[in-house]
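Usage example:
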Amino acid sequence: DAKTTQPPSMDCAEGRAANLPCNHSTISGNEYVYWYRQIHSQGPQYIIHGLKNNETNEMASLIITEDRKSSTLILPHATLRDTAVYYCIVRVDNQFYFGTGTSLTVIP
Amino acid sequence: DADVTQTPRNRITKTGKRIMLECSQTKGHDRMYWYRQDPGLGLRLIYYSFDVKDINKGEISDGYSVSRQAQAKFSLSLESAIPNQTALYFCATSEGWNTDTQYFGPGTRLTVL
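Running the assembly step on the lines above writes:
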């Protein structure tokens, strides 16, 4: 069973906010949600993680719903270099479970 | 210098050959991982190690073995390579504290003919 569900693709205009949704309805109370991105076939790059509260760092913001069944990654001002596949990941029993991710294309 | 390095970066081999992929890290992390990625799919965990004496199977360990030679080194072996092991392989490390964020190497592209 998929641990996370994401839309397969999204477009975003350059300079606009990119909002990437993720469903993780089976998440347990102490499991973190992580977001990574992968540009071409490079190694995945860590973006942000969260448990219950919303989080923000220099790359992005993470909004987690109160019931923790879904979250949204926000890239506040998307640039062309943000074009990548974005993975929403849940860690279960010490293992990261990647879904198939969302391919984000930032359009000039 | 990169914190997590993988060798080789590309490898083409034949069915039945033994192959070893190596991973080294300078992050000082105790935990190391091997993943494979097939085209259009996310990463899947093969093996992970929480310290030199601790090795665990992941989601897809059949056909693979690993060796943790030191804190900084973790090798993945294919004893007898087969074509459906053609994939992109990634090594990762984590420090094991609290949230256990993983940091990935650049990947090894393996083709089995």
